[in-house]
Amino acid sequence: MSLRHALLALLTARPMTGYDLAKQFDVSVAYVWHAPHSQIYPELRKLEASGLVSAESTPRGSQATKRTYSITEEGRAELRRWVEEVAPPLPERDAAHLKATYYEFGSFANARRQFEGHLAYHQRQQLKWQIHVAQLEKHDTDLLRRRLAIEPEHTHDAIVAYKVHVYRGLVERARVEVEWAREGLALVDRLEAAETARRSAGD
Amino acid sequence: MSLRHALLALLTARPMTGYDLAKQFDVSVAYVWHAPHSQIYPELRKLEASGLVSAESTPRGSQATKRTYSITEEGRAELRRWVEEVAPPLPERDAAHLKATYYEFGSFANARRQFEGHLAYHQRQQLKWQIHVAQLEKHDTDLLRRRLAIEPEHTHDAIVAYKVHVYRGLVERARVEVEWAREGLALVDRLEAAETARRSAGD
């Protein structure tokens, strides 16, 4: 149910078409909640059917129309309800760590390749989130500028600070994964050196 | 597909009934990959149908029989194949952090309650994983003792070290979440104090 609430939150900045929403989604929500665009359009229609957003059709060119969605009062109430809801934590499901538990069934080269992939992925994530923290701190995203333009000034600190806190937390988490992968590579080196020493002692 | 491979890995320690497997699952794999017991039994039957495990029926009491599963050579090959497969990272889907991005739509009391829940949960996880690291380091789990009893001694270091590395990584990750929640609580205090000051200045 997170996608529908993320869409409602995006629409608090300004009314948007499905196309605008998808674009904004990719440079904000998607950093923490991945969803393909193909899920966004059906979700918008469901939100409209339940009265949480309203849509206005305006002509685009001479043939087509475009639909612009706005959040309704009911939509704002539903957004607040969701934010105030304490959700149970998701069950642990970590495929990378599960597999690493069993690296002894593969080769040292495999363990190394796996840790290297983990390292590269989390370095990219860390960088992406660092850039987003810097953008948020400078109010340098279209969405945040529009939100701040319509909200009373005394609310600006909270609006920015919660988002910065989230992305700083993700940067830290990525940093831990990067470190874990580096230590994993050092572990493989150690295990392989011991194995090489054992084999040459056996010769 | 992680559950089936985790079951294969468990069976490398010794042949087990479905009941034994479910019990062992809860004190090993489940720390990193949650699955309800109701998924384990059908998965075992699928593994048997594909020849990755074999089952032997023996009488239990005068009426019932119990089925004991063993990993086959094909099962060992499939386990190695999975360990050597580089899986793409799962898309980011972090419901807690997504919601925290929007805490300004709720009250300070709500933000505090959410961070407190996050803190308590990750403190429990951290403790659970710390205990498991200590168990693994002392070879103090039934599964690990049985694995080590049947594997050549020169492989013991890798068998233990990969597992210890995984659970140490999870301890570190939980530590980051605990810290993030604590800093979140400090942020709420700061925002609420500023809001209180603003209101009394307005009086």
Extract low-pLDDT stretches of chain A.
none
- Tell me the number of helical segments of chain A per DSSP (H or I, 4 or more residues long): 8
The main β sheet of chain A shows up as: 3 strands, antiparallel
**Which overall shape of chain A is indicated by the principal axes computed on the Cα atoms?**
elongated
| Secondary structure category of chain A | mainly alpha
Instruction: Report helical residue fraction of chain A.
Output: 55-70%
- Rg of chain A, Å, rounded: 23 Å
Round the mean pLDDT of chain A to the nearest integer and report it. Answer: 95
Order of helices and strands of chain A: HEHHEEHHHHH
Number of strands of chain A: 3
Largest contact between protein chains? A-B, 69 and 70 residues
List the strand order in the largest sheet of chain A. 1-3-2
In short:
Helices cover 67% and strands 9% of the residues of chain A. By secondary structure, chain A is mainly α. In chain A, a hairpin with a 3-residue loop joins strand 2 and strand 3 (64-71).
What does this structure look like?
2 copies of one chain form a homodimer. With 203 residues, the first copy, chain A, is mainly α. Chain A has 2 domains: 2-84, Orthogonal Bundle (Arc Repressor Mutant, subunit A); 95-202. In chain A, 67% of the residues lie in helices and 9% in strands. Chain A contains 8 helices and 3 strands, in the order H-E-H-H-E-E-H-H-H-H-H. Chain A has helices at 2-11, 18-26, 37-49, 73-84, 95-100, 108-137, 142-150, 156-202; strands at 16-17, 53-60, 64-71. In chain A, strands 1-3-2 form a 3-stranded antiparallel sheet. In chain A, a hairpin with a 3-residue loop joins strand 2 (53-60) and strand 3. In chain A, helix 6 (108-137) packs antiparallel against helix 8. Chain A starts with a helix and ends with a helix. Chains A and B meet through helix 1, helix 4, helix 5, helix 6 and helix 8 of A and helix 1, helix 4, helix 5, helix 6 and helix 8 of B.
